[in-house]
Amino acid sequence: MNEAAGPSDHGCIELAELSVSYGSTLALRPVDLTLYEGVTGLFGPNGAGKSTLLRVLAGLLRPSSGRATLFGKEIRASSESIRRRIGYVGHESGLYPRLSVIENLTLFANLYGVPSTRVDDVLERLDMSERRIAQVGALSAGLARRVAVARALLHEPDVLLLDEPYANLDDDAAERVSAAVLDWRAPGRVAVIATHGAKRVKAFADAGIIIQRGAVISYRRKSATGYEVAT
Amino acid sequence: MAERGFVAKTTMLIRKDLLVEARARDTLPPMLAFCLTVALLLAFSIPGNTVMQDAVEIPIGTVALADVIAGFLWITILFAGLIGFARTFEVERADGALDALLLVPLDRSGLFAAKAVSNLVYIAVVQVFLVPVFALFFSLSLGADWLVLVLVIALVDIGFVAIGTLFASLAAQTRSRELILPVLALPGLVPIFIAAVELTSDLFLGGGLETVAARGWFGILLLFDLVFVTVGALAFEFAID
């Protein structure tokens, strides 16, 4: 595990006056933030706007106003060079239930141009090797979640966006997911992990954002003396 | 491993769609069941002793049987196609796979091409089943002109799947997609299907390749294919995003 990788001052993701509305409902109030390399926990209750923010960061949702940049480039899902650098797991698995675990991961590996040995590697890392020929639709929600995380890690993205990655996982599986994220962590890489159960992510996060009713109410980064307010 | 090209990635997505359909059987069986039911009902609507005549020979106040049967054939294909197209993005929506797919490094036109080719395969399977059924039920005999009918069908299918796939991507983002798709797609499909009926009717009346190629509808069909494929590939990005 890459435990040495810690927070730095390299801004990877920048949000400027970014807001999202669904009709007359303001899902995300105007926010200015800089996210740095390392793991940032995104905490808040259900409906706080965590998933909305992650979808904007993935380029899957266009903000109503403001802009988001990733490594200095505006985030747009239509940009192939941006997409290649993102690994995303949403609320759902993002997998094909009629295909097996190995068929799903091989499909995405081929689409990203990743060697098939990498599929075995991520399956091993998430302790899913024994389920490789099982149809995803036949897996429990927790097992499907682990395959979804494996899919997001397949192409070793620079930006990892995980929405409730611990949902339906038992403790051992949750530890596997955390270990896989820590293994992936490296200088220049940024992960944002949204969860309403902060405890597990706080254990290894370099920064934490608390979001409530669409507004960021706290943003702190880990320092030598504890957590400091960040902007 | 060298990254694969546009065609290779698009082919992977087509193979994925066909594999999922082979296992789920969600799309083709309803299309085929619809076709068989409609063909059977239509067969009973035509009197048994009717014969095909050229339009100039039929008495005023009656209709040409060739036009009617060609109309029956293409209306059946049209609605069977809409049943199938409405399910185009269901496989992606089921577990949020569309988000994962939208993030892969492949141009949106590749996604469009993959979905359009998958739809083309479904509609071709329907036609391979439906045309012989119509030939049997309505005593159609085209001789060597079957090949010309295959050409007409292929040209109609290209425009049909292009516009159907494009609007299916828009309709997929609505709750009542099965209802929205025909509303969106039918106005654009009307010229193609008029051309299809006119050209097929000519073939049923004994016209060959020369007759069909000389008709203005043949040119219209080619033009609409070109426009719809181009518009579909370019507009898909905006529709799906």
Care to describe what's here?
The complex is a heterodimer of chains A (231) and B (241). With 231 residues, chain A is α/β, with parallel strands linked by helices. Chain A has a domain at 8-83 and 189-231: Rossmann fold (3-Layer(aba) Sandwich). Chain A contains 7 helices and 11 strands. Chain A has helices at 50-58, 80-83, 101-112, 116-125, 141-153, 171-184, 198-202; strands at residues 11-22, 25-36, 38-43, 65-70, 73-74, 86-89, 159-163, 190-195, 207-212, 215-223, 226-229. The longest helix of chain A is centred in the last third of the chain and has 14 residues, at 171-184. Chain B is globular and about 65 Å long. The mean pLDDT of chain B is 89. Chain B is mostly helical. Chain B has one domain (6-240). In chain B, α6 (108-137) crosses α10 (216-240) and α8 (177-204) packs antiparallel against α10. Chain B contains 10 helices and no strands. The chains are: A alpha/beta (231), B mainly alpha (241). At the A-B interface, α3 of A face α1 and α5 of B.
What's this, in brief?
The complex is a heterodimer of chains A (231) and B (241). By secondary structure, chain A is an alpha/beta fold. Chain A has seven helices and eleven strands.
- Find the structural class of chain A using helix and strand composition: alpha/beta
User: What is the correct CATH architecture of the domain at 8-83 and 189-231 in chain A?
Assistant: 3-Layer(aba) Sandwich
Number of helices of chain A: 7
Are there runs of chain A of 5+ residues with pLDDT below 50, and where? Answer: 1-7
Order of SSEs of chain A: EEEHEEHEHHHEHEHEEE
Task: List the strand order in the largest sheet of chain A.
Answer: 6-7-8-3-9-10-11
- Please report which band the strand proportion of chain A falls in: under 5%, 5-15%, 15-25%, 25-35%, 35-45% or over 45%: 25-35%
At the fold tier of CATH, the topology name of the domain at 8-83 and 189-231 in chain A is Rossmann fold
